[in-house]
Amino acid sequence: MKTLLRRSERPASTEEPAAEPAANGNPPVEPSPPEVTPSAEAPAATCQSCGAAMAADQDWCLECGTAAPGRLGERPGWRLGAMVLVLTLLLVGGASVAGYAAVTGDAERETAAQNPAPGTPVPSQVPQPPAPERPTSEPPEPEPVESVEPAPSADVQPDVSTPDTSVPDNTVIDPVTPLPDTSTDTTTDDTVGGTNAEEFTAFDVKADELEVFDPYERAGAEFGDPEDALNTTDPFFDVTVPADGEAIGAGLKIDLGAVRTVREITFRTTTPGMGLQVYGVKSGDPSGLKAGWRLVSEPDLPSGERDVTITLDAGGEELRRIVLWFTTAANAEDPRASVGRLKVLG
To answer: Vertex 256, ends 149 and 237: CA angle to 5°?
Structure first.
């Protein structure tokens, strides 16, 4: 509701009335000055926004709605905005300084951990032992299979052996005197003299217990009859491979029929100087060279010796099956390996 301040419509006369003469001859009486009606009081204050008049006890401007000075405080101005901006900048700066200090502290700790202080003992590195050398061609990874040893069959000769305590391991000894070439029957037990005048008994190796051992199917390999390994005269059992610079990688497997104590293996070859490894197992019949066969000898065959005697450990090796594994050929242009007059003794 608007409050209207109105002024008097007519201004009070400034002229004083003339003194009227007295009717009874008395001196004239001066009239009293007229009462002047006070005009409305001037406004106590004005609005700071629009300039409208405001009463002294008026809290709000009736024209624009602005609060009277001192009632609700002044509207925010640039000072408040500047203060907010300054506080924001201070907070951002403080956060940046704290983050930089944290990153710098982590970097210094990592540097101190990597660079020990002078005088701090540095642990020495223990050199690792060299890996054991393995055969150059098809090294075995033996996985022996423990099983109950079968009892010898009735038609197999008993293992009659004399312990040999003087022959060194894996040693090629001088060949014995060749047997006379008068018979091809090598299935009977014979006695062959050892290097220390000890006698070993030849086991009864049957022709049907010999077979080609070619687990990796050597490309281009040609095999003779395994039974020819028992012949005392040519033809002998042989393996021929292409002249491709690769190892022969095949051999001859011998089944003794039962577990035997093997001390010597003798044979004659027409390819002296060839590379040879002897593997054996006590039980089972592994299909691959790495599937359980154990290396028992790796003799160095002289290039000029045709009659070969391989002596195993002094106490012999308990074996059921043996593999003569041919590695390198004596003649690279004619890569062959042959075995005849084969005997296994114990």
So the answer is: 150
322 found inside a domain: yes
Tell me 229's DSSP state.
G
Residue 319 pairs in a beta bridge with: 260
At 1, the amino acid letter reads M
Q: Which residue range is the domain that position 237 belongs to?
A: 171-345
The amino acid at 295: L
What's the Rg (C-alpha) of the chain?
63
CB-based contact 344:233 (threshold 8 Å): no
Q: Are residues 194 and 341 in the same domain?
A: yes
Task: Express each pLDDT in 213-266 by its tens digit.
Answer: 999 999 999 999 999 999 999 899 999 999 998 999 999 999 999 999 999 999
Model pTM score: 0.45
CA angle 242/246/252 to nearest 5° reads: 75
Considering the domain boundaries, does residue 241 fall inside one?
Answer: yes
Residues counted in the chain:
346
The pLDDT of residue 103 is 84
Q: Side chain identity at 304, as an amino acid letter? A: G
Please state, in angstroms and rounded to a whole number, the distance separating the CA atoms of residues 99 and 90: 14
C-alpha closest to that of 313 among 241, 263, 256, 244: 263
For residue 339, is it within any domain? yes
DSSP 132: P
DSSP letters along 248-281, please? --EEEEEEEEEEEEE-EEEEE-SSTT--EEEEEE
Residue-wise burial string across 161-177, b where 16 or more C-beta atoms lie within 10 A, e elsewhere: beebeebeeeeebeeee
Joined together, the tokens standing for residue 338 give 């042959």
- Whether residue 150 is contained in a domain is answered as no
